[in-house]
Amino acid sequence: MSFFSRFALATCVALAGATPSFAQEGSLTIGSGFGPKSEVPDPRAAYNGWTSNQTGVTETLMGIDYDLDLYPRLADDIEQSAPTTWRVTLPTDVTFHDGTPLTAQSVVDAIAPILDEAHAGHNKRIASLLDLAGMSTDGDHVVVFETNSPNAAFPWTLSEPGIAILGAPSDAFPINATGPFVFQEAVIGQSYRVEANPDYRLGTPGLQEVTVVYADDESTQALAFEAGEVDMVINYPVTDFERIKESGAQGFSAPTARLYFYTVNAASGPMANPLIRRAVSMAIDRQGVVDAVLSGVGGTPAGTVFPTGKGWAADIPATYDMAGAEALLSEAGAVKQGGQWMLDGEPLEIDIVTYTGRAPLSPTAELTQAFLQAIGIKSSVRVGEWGAMTDEIAAGNADMFLQAWVMTPQGDPGGVLETLLKSDGGSNSGRYSNPEMDNLLAAGRANFEHEKRAEIYDQVQELIASDGALIPVFHVSQVNVAKPGLTGYAVHPTETYWVTHETKFTE
């Protein structure tokens, strides 16, 4: 039984009813959000690597399976030869799309731009996670990585989609990678198209072509699916999932590590006070949000950043306590007058921002506004494009930024937390800075004993809660739909894999 077949029964729900017409055999058109920013999106820059990885263009040295376990992907083996030295052995039968062989030097050449601020492939977030002091080769098929300090997360970091192993680009292969599909073109903000790699080492792909078309609004994607304009929708609107079961489509739903949470402006404004951050967190009825927003499809109130009972999750309940929230506001020096909390003689007001592209975001922000109003805190909600809203909170023009992130895309607990919460984290748009947090995250990365690491990350999660470093709201299942007959597909808990050489349509 193939890798994907093992998960089909657990994740695929057969749906009955009339079926709309779809694209031709051998092709797959996927509707999703967040389109490409350039005509040749460098997989190493920004989050471009997620798209290229999801569509089977690029591959990474290591991978994460459906149980969130680490496995060698492009690598044959990885070993730690010294506290700061890792040796990755490569196979001898892998070629890039242009036919050139994968070598140790090509791996070094592919990763080096990530670290180079002057290169288009530079990625501050990933460079921080890698923390490399140097790279070298030992013959044609061994890459030697030296880290600046002992780094237990390093093998997991090599599964990050942005650490894509690329060969030299050309006009024929502008993204010259190793995956089962070959990049063909991208239309800025609109589409991303790939074609089968007939020479893929694991077998000829079951699809001839895959095209991803983009729309920020999930409802637009749903309409396109019903009209037969797309064959599949990633993140189908949860409010419509029950109805679409009668359309003749195939449904896929499985829990993921995606967390809906608030980044807080920890550098200025009212949320710079940890007591107010904790009060706001305590005022949110998370179960009420899940019941109202997710329509029974699947979601769990979040007391901490990792899904309850999974992997690295600490036992921290989701607390809803209006009286406790008001007590914290008083402790912060706020005074309630006429039902409105005042701080330093001015009404306590909180500006909430979020973005389009995921249906639960806006209603979650609006419900948060209602919960805050219930205890006497004024708030506003603004919805815009993700990048613009990131800029707003980074500039100190917003107090809370509602986001949805997969918290363990590399399976290791430290990766996302470091980029979000380290003082110099690459995605620390709230400018949170706490030496205790920095020290704990550094200790977690430097410790190689699993039990000790678990203790450290429990402390990290407890500090997140006690300091209001960010405000978790809920974890959600991913809900996707496809036309009948799609096989070789299952919802991956990190959401970083969509198609492989095994993905195809069957009669």
What does this protein structure show overall?
With about 500 residues, this protein is of the alpha+beta class. The chain folds into two domains: about 40-180, D-Maltodextrin-Binding Protein, domain 2 (3-Layer(aba) Sandwich); about 255-475, Dipeptide-binding Protein, domain 3 (Roll), CATH 3.10.105.10. Helix content is about 25%, strand content about 25%. It is built from 15 helices and 23 strands. The protein has helices at about 5-10, 50-55, 105-115, 125-130, 155, 220-225, 240-245, 275-285, 285-295, 320-330, 360-375, 385-395, 415-420, 435-445, 450-465; strands at about 10-15, 25-30, 60-65, 70, 75-80, 85-90, 130-135, 140-145, 180-185, 190-195, 210-215, 230-235, 250-265, 300, 335, 340-345, 345, 350-355, 380-385, 400-405, 470-480, 485, 505. The strands form five sheets. Strands 1, 2, 9, 10, 11, 12, 13, 14, 18, 19, 20 and 21 form a twelve-stranded mixed beta sheet that branches. α8 packs antiparallel against α10 (about 320-330), α13 (about 415-420) runs antiparallel to α14 and α14 runs antiparallel to α15. The model is unreliable at about 1-25 (pLDDT under 50).
Task: Describe the secondary-structure layout.
Elements: H1 5-11, E1 12-14, E2 27-32, H2 48-54, E3 62-64, E4 70-72, E5 77-82, E6 85-89, H3 104-115, H4 124-130, E7 132-137, E8 142-147, H5 154-157, E9 181-187, E10 191-196, E11 209-214, H6 218-226, E12 232-233, H7 241-244, E13 250-264, H8 274-283, H9 286-293, E14 299-301, H10 322-331, E15 335-337, E16 340-343, E17 346-347, E18 349-355, H11 361-374, E19 378-384, H12 386-394, E20 400-406, H13 414-421, H14 435-446, H15 450-467, E21 470-482, E22 486-487, E23 504-505
Parallel strand pairs: 2-11, 2-12, 18-19, 18-20
Antiparallel strand pairs: 1-13, 3-4, 5-6, 6-8, 7-8, 9-10, 10-11, 12-21, 13-20, 13-21, 14-21, 15-16, 16-17, 22-23
Helix pairs in contact: 8-10, 13-14, 14-15
